[in-house]
Amino acid sequence: MHPLDSIASPGLWAATIAGLLALLAVDVWLTRRPHEVAMGEALRWTAFYLALPFVFFGFLWWVYGGTPAIEFLTGFVVEKSLSVDNLFVFMLLLASFAVPPALAQRVLLYGIVGALVLRAVFIALGAGALATGTWVFLLFGAVLVWTAIRVLREAGEGPEATIDVENMRTVRMLRRWLPVTTEYDGFKLVTRVDGRRALTPAALVVTAIFMTDIVFAVDSVPAVYGVTEDPYLVLATNAFALLGLRALYFVLHDALGRLRHLNYGLGVILAFIGVKLVLHWAHGIWSWVPEIPTVLSLGVIVVVLAAVTATSLLATRQERRSERRSRPGVGGEPLDERGDLVGNLVQRGEPGRGARVGPHGAADQSRDLP
Q1: What UniProt keywords apply to this chain's record, in alphabetical order (predicted)?
Q2: How far apart are alpha carbons 301 and 198 in whole angstroms?
């Protein structure tokens, strides 16, 4: 075994973890009272959390040079694009459990904290595996290529996404352990009914989000290790990408359904990074095998994301024009000109009854959740 190179000293690790905990404490304080998040509030915090990684990028460039700074920025872009896909599933889960709007941000915060813990565990496991030899790059590359093929196939099939929460293994297990109330009790995960402890629907949705985070970690951690081998930079990219998800959810809430080609882009990016990892492994054995530079990786990722965003918005606009020409509305009601995903696409039910999304948006795919 050989230790992985890292720019981080123990002091930098301690300062980074302390800063991360401070930001989480601020989020906990902001969500202490149930309230619906206004667009202005969401935009301000989204801008703040988008500015932070660029400040950190400048710090890395100034102190450690251009190479780790570019690796961090590339990894952040990869993680942020993958985290948008997380938001689609979070949206499905919140709709499936009929989470009240005033409680949504605290539920999302619970999910983000769980994701950070899981990413830290997966990053540590990945670092330990990489220390045993370069064969892990081949394994990570194969995982990413397989994931990319699955994502592209699901995007091409385009079925409506459904989450049947009643059949989720974790939900069934919790229901066997404790009774579950039908009503939310503020932020409480556990309450008392007739003197007995019972879970609230909030406990079920938080558990469901936590379990889906495991699925996302399997994809995202190898993807960032395909950009940098530094565990510190891998953790930093994941932390900065996840911290702003709570506010970004409310900013993109109505726009998520318009990114109908996003999964095509994510599939291409995952396949590209998978090939990059395989080439990196092969280069260590045969020196004549070329490697893909990090700067080129950043350029490819940015171009792919820009392209799928542009084609998504163009396709959505063209379809709306076609629908307005052919029919004034659905079921006698006018079409929503804003493309409100929750208003038009999510059919709400009782807590735990499930929800469907379709026919638009990158969420139009099957989801096998634990």
Answers
A1: Membrane, Transmembrane, Transmembrane helix
A2: 46
* DSSP classification of residue 5: P
DSSP 256: G
Helix-helix angle 135-157:201-225, to 10 degrees: 120
Cα–Cα distance for residue pair 46/33, rounded to 1 Å: 20
Report the C-alpha gap between 370 and 324 in whole angstroms.
40
CA atoms 358, 360, 365, 370: torsion sign:
negative
User: Would you say the C-alpha torsion 260, 263, 269, 275 has a positive or negative sign?
Assistant: negative
Q: Which tokens is 175 given?
A: 């229901």
Do residues 172 and 359 touch, judged by C-beta distance below 8 A?
no
> Could you list the pLDDT tens digit for every one of the 370 residues in the chain?
555 678 888 999 999 999 999 999 988 888 877 777 777 888 888 899 999 999 999 999 999 999 999 999 999 988 888 877 677 777 777 777 778 877 888 888 888 888 888 888 888 888 888 777 777 778 878 888 887 887 788 777 654 455 555 555 666 676 677 777 777 777 677 787 777 788 787 888 887 787 777 777 777 788 888 888 899 999 999 999 888 888 888 877 666 666 677 778 878 888 888 888 888 778 777 878 888 887 888 888 889 888 888 888 888 777 777 777 766 555 555 544 444 444 444 444 444 444 444 434 444 444 444 5
Reduced to 3 states (helix: H, G, I; strand: E, B; else coil), residue 252 is helix
Identify whether 359 is preceded by a cis peptide bond (ω within 30 of 0): yes
Query: How many other CB atoms are there within 10 angstroms of residue 340's CB atom?
Result: 14
Per the confidence metrics, is the pTM higher than 0.90? no
From the centroid of its chain, how far is CA 1?
A: 32
